[in-house]
Amino acid sequence: MTPIKILVVDDETAILDTLRILLRREGFEVSTAVGGREGVEKVQAERPDLVLTDVRMPGVGGMEVMAAAREVDAAIPVILMTAQASLQTAIRAVNEGAFYYIQKPFANEELVAICRRAGESRQLKKENQQLRTEIQRRERTDVPKPIGRSRRFIDVLRLSETVAGSDSTVLISGESGTGKEILANYIHRISPRADGPFVSINCGALPESLLESELFGHTRGSFTGAVRDKQGLFVAATSGTFFLDEVGEMSPATQVKLLRVLQEREVIPVGATEAVPVDVRIIAATNRDLDEEMRRGGFRSDLFYRLNVITLHLPPLRDRADDVPMLAEFFLDKFAASRGRSPLALSAEALGALQAYDWPGNVRELENALERAAVLTASGEIPASALPARITQRAPQPLVSASLPPNPTLEIIERAYIHWVLHAESGNKTRAAEVLGIDPSTLYRKLLRYGMETEGGKP
Question: Residue 233's pLDDT is what?
Fold first, then answer.
């Protein structure tokens, strides 16, 4: 069990030394402060589990130390010591939140017993808070997680879950189609703002004048066509999360206005003179290299540092080959459910082709490819032939010759061995996979990798 941290505050060093020795012997982790002023500083810096303080001290007294402790954490028990006890002082101390009021001189056993009760009370409150937090977390487990099991993706997911509980601004980077908005929505739904709205906008999809109106709102008559006042999306997202996709596409003028929102937490609608306060958590995303954009002068450095409080980088799908089967299963189940069809599955060769492909369009391209394949497949199993040609075709490369170089690499040896086994099995990939001791999908990926797959199906 973690020892209870106790801060002892008194203006007499002899008393501090005595109490330090006594309480350490009883298993407490003890810190001391000489006088109330140092006591207040240590309460704020150390955040102890328990405070034991004298009431009467020069300058800053025990009541002020107790007030400081309650500001840091109202659950910290405070035990007050005094040599000049009075009923009025005791009543005041208890009314202001003191755990106990003890008169000097006191028996060591009595003080230790009081400190133990206070420590147990503190631990119980901590456990109750942890239990409430865990209950709240479990109540949010019905929120579906973004799909993936690769190490890099899981690391990003865990970090996003860690930062979800704060209001800090998050910047998500990654190539187009990697699922930045899905991750932003997930952060919102497991955050304390989950009951508020999730509002999103693609900053690169609108011209500058229209984007400013959408973001900040406008007043009637502020420009041609503004026939009525309009609430901006920052205000619409109050108490929730505002997702700014492709923030790197913003014009310099709009970047200045966004910077003001981040600094002042208020917006000025187009055509207005008075600012409107906003209460919103901001998550931004970009597929651009903002460091390079700053060097070129296309993106403001002060805005970047305001956005880049917490950075999450979504890896491209080509670096997440292990995630392809899970994503494929999800998209096929989704398609089958929406069309009222029986469950769909990929053949081993089709799965191998998906895992071997580089996916320049990332998850979005995978979803589109699978929808096409599902539409073209009448049976429950999707063959590789139903996938787009760009996924299954590779530029042919010359085969490894029978005579290997003097010091062949492992890849050359593997390629030659696969070629030899396939030749021995008359091009039958299923039997060749059995001989090689690997799955057919693994064999297919290796054939694609080494350029050994031809239209006829034989190397």
Answer: 92
Report the alpha-carbon angle 371-373-378, nearest 5.
Answer: 110
The C-alpha angle 309, 129, 189, rounded to 5 degrees, equals 45
Candidates 343, 349, 439; CA nearest to 385 is 349
Q: Please report how many Cα atoms fall inside a 13 Å half-sphere around the Cα of residue 413, on the Cβ side.
A: 5
Name the token pair of 40.
């207040």
335 in Cβ contact with 159 (< 8 Å): no
Which domains does the chain carry?
A: 5-134 (3.40.50.2300), 151-315 (3.40.50.300), 318-392 (1.10.8.60), 395-459 (1.10.10.60)
**Partners of 413 in the β-ladder:** none
Q: Identify which of 305, 219, 303, 215 has the alpha carbon closest to the alpha carbon of residue 267.
A: 215
CA-CA distance, 15 to 5, in Å (whole number)?
Answer: 18
Instruction: Name every residue whose Cβ is closer than 8 Å to that of residue 275 and which is 6 or more positions away in sequence.
Output: 264, 266, 267, 268
Cβ-contact 32, 7 below 8 angstroms: yes
Q: What global pTM score does this model have?
A: 0.57
Residues 28-63 pLDDT 10s: 999 999 999 999 999 988 889 999 999 889 999 998
